[in-house]
Amino acid sequence: MDHLDKLESRSIHILREAYSEFNNICMLWSVGKDSTVMLWLARKAFFGHVPIPLVHIDTSYMIPEMIKHRDKLAKEWRLDMIYGQDEETLAAGETFPEGKLSHLECCGRLKTAALKNTLNGNWHRYRYNHNKDQYELDSNREPYTGVIVGARADEEGSRSKERYFSPRDRNNDWDIGDQPPEFWDQYKTDFAPGTHVRIHPLLDWTELDVWEYIQREKIPMVSLYFDQGQGKRYRSLGCAPCTEPVESTASTVDEVVAELKTGKFANIAERDGRAQDKEDGGGLEELRKDGYM
Ligand code: SF4
């Protein structure tokens, strides 16, 4: 087995373990490269069919290509696709940068609160109806007690503190100092009632691993990751007003892999183009403690 085979095998093991141990789980799909690789792994884990609902938190500010790519793959791969959003804040027009909310407050509402309330079923969820080719209000309000997330430990500081199976309390709060140890591939999957668990099958993958796997498996990626002739591409995707591309002429997966191997970005954080990661030192960890992905 080579390096990618070992990573794949462990991730598939965790996905199967999660599916067998938790009653009502979903998988977060941001449409970025990591969660799309995770979705690909889930298709492998369950022989082509993904038996887990895919949840997308739509801030409504996502770069439009991302939504097109989401719906294209949802159709092609017959995914059980759900999205949720903070309809009240959006209707009130309070969002950053035009509205009165600061950057972190806006993320706190459109991402963290939207996620929390989509997962617990308090807010509307919209489910893709494959027969009608449209999203419809979902009558199922049952809370998800486990959520599979494509976070990687090397992505930024707070993610490196996660476990493969990371518990959150009833309020979705994360106690970083009180997490179960995970030695020798032994994972704690038995938690007290009311615990909400985040499952991280990609924790050990690096950015280069992800791109080499995309290259090997020929996984379809949203075009934003590639230069379209302007000498820029996105290294990490998010809301259009708050995400900056990097200088790069890599226009194919092979070129992205080659570029990463040069070490060009070795001293630049992968999420450097994401404004919320830079705010008030430790801002992202505070958001994550409160439920942010
Ligand atoms: S990334 Fe920007 S637009 Fe998106 S939720 Fe955060 S502040 Fe609002």
Automatic annotation (TrEMBL):
Coiled-coil positions are none
Q: What are the protein's GO molecular function terms?
A: ATP binding; sulfate adenylyltransferase (ATP) activity
**Keyword RNA-binding attached:** no
Please give the SUPFAM superfamilies that the UniProt record associates with this protein.
Answer: Adenine nucleotide alpha hydrolases-like
Q: Indicate yes or no for the key word S-adenosyl-L-methionine.
A: no
Residues forming the Phosphoadenosine phosphosulphate reductase domain are 25-245
- Residues annotated as region Disordered? 271-293
User: InterPro entries this protein is in?
Assistant: PAPS_reduct_dom, Rossmann-like_a/b/a_fold, SO4_adenylTrfase_ssu, Sulfate_adenylyltrnsfr_sub2
Q: Which UniProt keywords apply?
A: ATP-binding, Nucleotide-binding, Nucleotidyltransferase, Transferase
- Entry's Gene Ontology BP terms: sulfate assimilation
Annotated EC? 2.7.7.4
Q: Which family does it belong to?
A: Belongs to the PAPS reductase family. CysD subfamily.
Query: What is the name listed in the Swiss-Prot or TrEMBL entry for this protein?
Result: Sulfate adenylyltransferase subunit 2
**What organism, scientifically named, is this protein from?**
Halanaerobium praevalens (strain ATCC 33744 / DSM 2228 / GSL)
